[in-house]
Write a structure and sequence with these properties.
2 copies of one chain form a homodimer.
Chain A: E1 16-24, H1 30-40, E2 44-53, E3 64-66, H2 69-81, E4 89-92, H3 98-114, E5 119-122, E6 127-128, E7 131-132, H4 138-146, E8 152-153, H5 157-164, H6 171-184, E9 188-191, E10 204-214, E11 220-230, H7 239-253, H8 258-284, H9 303-307, E12 316-322
Parallel strand pairs in A: 1-2, 1-4, 4-5, 5-8, 8-9
Antiparallel strand pairs in A: 2-3, 6-7, 9-10, 10-11, 11-12
Helix pairs in contact in A: 1-7, 2-3, 3-4, 5-6, 7-8
Chain lengths: ~325, ~280
């Protein structure tokens, strides 16, 4: 008897994602970071490249071209004229341009009309560690136009503070901020990192998540979780883009179980990052800090971990509260 | 495996041609793929409508300059396909020359996309054509399709290949093969781009065995095409011709076949000849 005959036949997943992110010739940020994992997990990925750069902007040099809002609209028009503007998910990340972001908003509105069950996964990339690295005038566009359309939001602590106007210093603050973000739009919010102290010590950072679920009696409840994530002593680029893509995939498979979705997402991140840092140190040599080129995510080498992650973190359910 | 490919091809938002067709299979097979998108279109030009933007030769050079300034212009393979622009193609040539200087063992896989089903008044016999092509440069030539009659009948098309190998005594020899490929009653787009990417991968694993490399390549093509046509007919419904959108290659669904193809064709070794 072939081993294969014991496997359950699973029907092929038909799920189409529109991802509007950067393209880099070399390395893994934006669409380069998001596309391979989603494809490996069986998603059809349509990708609009908002820029084409040689590499990410953390290298000593970078060169390339940006897409204008008009060009973005042109590409969408082509899809629309062929009547194939039907998506199950939209995924967006880093943007520097208000007019581009506003065109993205218009496109999402139209796609949501075409498919009301469309899920918009939004990484509201604005900054980190207390500093913005996009122009300040993007904040009102995110806050007032983008986030209200989002179904899943993946801000870090700083971005969550910017969007809600509230500071996070305790876990209670984080819970309040996530509830405020729910009120702005998204049913699922993941604070991808925070400065909150971890009970496991200073080698860990705390991430939190919240998902509102409508109970059978019509009332809302929310599942709130927190995860302790081992810190790594290196600056990675593209990890946020990978995180959002993986969260899309795992919330698709676990739509009402944020705990499971986050455990898988964070576990994959861990495997990719570990593989990356090991290889980077091999390349750099003993005692040398790896370069941005050496720190590029070991994406294709992590295919097996992406497909079938060994779970290496456990999310804690904080509280269920009814509203 | 540490193997880096630079692929300079089209990007389509939706569907599988150019870099969209080449990148996923190569990544799934463990290759690092750096991709320069020569155009960004909504979809391939076989649809009723298409919209998008093209990269100029200057912009191509800019991107290459970025890679070069960071001193990461080191590749094991280059892959190119469809191009409409002479100045762009000439910039590609300059880049390849420089990359070959940086790495003399670089392998350039070239699909010289110019047309199909054209008429030639007089064609030299196929072997001579492949040998003429060897003399022009490439050590490996695959005629991906031909109008030659197949011994297996008219439901098959004939593909041929030739690889020159330097023997230990310094003389050249060539391995020539032919494969009968089952015809499919549909127009696919992106299959040539997929073929070239797969041939890159399988010649990498079988550098001196064109027979094995072609059998794997053609087998994967067969699985992908079969899956695609089945699904296209499901979508179109009985008796209807599938649309270009419905005929997009079932690429992500074919991951297992790409990784570990069941071999479904056998290439015939034609002759070894010494030169």
């Amino acid at each position: 008897i072939l081993l294969g005959s014991w496997f359950v036949v699973i029907s092929v997943m038909e799920c189409r994602v529109l991802s509007i992110q950067s393209h880099v010739v070399r390395g893994y940020v934006g669409n380069k970071s998001a596309t391979f994992p989603l494809q490996v997990l069986g998603f059809e990925v349509d990708s609009i490249n908002s820029v084409q750069f040689s590499n990410h902007t953390g290298y000593a040099h970078w060169k390339g071209q940006v897409l204008t809002a008009e060009e973005l609209n042109e590409l969408y028009e082509g899809i629309k004229l062929n009547k194939v503007n039907h998506y199950d998910y939209i995924l967006t990340g880093y943007s520097r341009d208000t007019s581009f972001l506003e065109m993205v908003v218009d496109i999402i509105k139209e796609l949501k009309e075409a498919n009301p069950s469309l899920v918009y996964v939004c990484d509201p990339v604005m900054g980190d560690h207390g500093a913005m690295y996009v122009p300040e005038y993007l904040l009102p566009v995110y806050r007032d136009k983008v986030v209200p359309l989002a179904d899943i939001l993946t801000p870090n602590q700083f971005e969550a503070e910017l969007l809600t106007g509230r500071k996070i210093t305790t876990e209670e603050d984080a819970v309040e901020v996530m509830d405020l973000l729910h009120k702005m739009g998204p049913k699922t919010v993941v604070l991808t990192s925070s400065d909150l102290p971890s009970k496991r010590g200073d080698q860990f950072l705390v991430a939190l998540g919240s998902q509102t679920i409508v109970k059978p009696d019509g009332t809302n409840t929310s599942q709130k979780i927190c995860i302790d994530i081992p810190k790594v002593d290196a600056v990675f680029v593209g990890t946020g883009d990978l995180f959002a893509a993986l969260l899309l995939a795992w919330t698709h498979h676990h739509p009402k179980d944020l705990k499971a979705a986050c455990e898988k997402t964070v576990s994959v991140m861990h495997h990719v990052i570990k593989r990356t840092i090991t290889y980077a140190h091999e390349l750099a040599g003993p005692g040398k800090r790896p370069s941005p080129a050496q720190l590029e995510l070991r994406m294709v080498q992590s295919k097996a971990d992406i497909e079938n992650p060994a779970i290496v973190v456990e999310a804690k359910v904080l509280q269920k509260s009814s509203h």
